[in-house]
User: What shape does this take?
Amino acid sequence: MQWQLLPAAVMMTVLIWLGALAVSILLSIPLTLLRRSRFGFARAVGAIWATLARGIPPIVWLILLYFGVASGLLKDVPAVSAIVGLGLVNSAYVSDSIRAGLDSVPTGQWEAIRATGLPRAVGLVRVILPQAFPIMLASTAAYSITLLKNTALASIIGANELIFFISNSVQQGADPLPAFLLAGVIYMVFTVPVGFFARWIEGRSVIAMVR
Amino acid sequence: MSKQLIESDPFGPIQPGPQSVSLSAHGIRKSFAGKEVLRGISLELRQGEHVAVIGPSGSGKSTFIRCLNLLETPDEGSIEVSGQRVFSAGDALRESQARALRLRVGMVFQSFNLFATYTALENVSLAQRFSLGRTKHEADERSEQLLRRVGLEQHMHKHPSQLSGGQQQRVAIARALALDPQVMLFDEPTSAADRVAFIAEGEVQEIGTPAEVFGSPKNERTRRFVDAVSGEL
Assistant: This one.
């Protein structure tokens, strides 16, 4: 096992994770707008997007993107395919988180916004989002744990991340049990704090009381 | 229990409008999923008048007062404020028109609907700043004055979750008054009473929380009264 290459492999795992998380958050905004649109056509597009993102296994997305995009256009095709593919899959879940956050705010808050003559945008930004945000963040953080674990799939398309590195080391004679145990521990170093963060932020939410 | 339409500030006079009729509704009809809830209600509220809308539960009291500030859009009918037509069923209703109406018709909800992440003071100031364009300083000054008037000087910096129902209701009243409305609407204003005393024949028959007195009256007379006015059973 070439230990000096381990940090780079961990870095690649974190890069794919955070890159895919950023892509999914960016994509989730138009996706949520489509799904909540007044127009049936837009809602249909949003529904198809969410269904495809959720219904196709992430590994299939990665392979489709890898062979679909890998025509020498990009420098690091495996990593980019993984970031885009996992980002696309996760966008459906982040969009669900946004919806859950918005829906957790009682309708009475919207009614009070309207009754006091506040413009919709002001009400959304100053009244609704501060209440919805902790729920959105907690839920997104919980999904990001799944996202991190899914980065292991990038090894299949040759991204030089943690599992790719461990598998190679095993092929070159490293003992598989401790090697994969180490991989498990490294994933836990990230997933456990994120899990704690999700629960902590959820506990901090201030939602209007429903009487 | 009663719904009240109370015109003018219950804590003292506000600027009187020039017209003697401040709010009128004509032929308001409203259906939900094919069920007609309001069948052509017309009502005029005059300057300085307190009008209570009472009726059994499910009779359309809430729907009616929600129509008056367009939280519900009437299917038919029209609404005038100070003689000015502000809503007419069938005409396209612009959001800006609805907002202008709501600034003149204050609303205190049954469950108050205070903004959960803001203090009492911020609740009263928010719409002054973003609906009326007052500065933060102007808005806070007016809010403090109103909150003092409703006896909440000790509670201005508390969040709704730290306030009792009655205190929340007073914040909600201050929040609506802060916009200088011409008319105030109260949905179930008595529900926030801390205690209810039922009096008959010159004597207190029963006293307790609204839930006790209205929900499970111990006294026979109270029970008959509650049954009669609630129109149920």
In short: The domain at 3-203 of chain A is CATH 1.10.3720.10 (MetI-like fold). The longest helix of chain A spans residues 120-150. Chain A touches chain B at residues 106, 108-109, 111-112, 114-120, 122, 126-127, 130-131, 206-211 (CB under 8 Å).
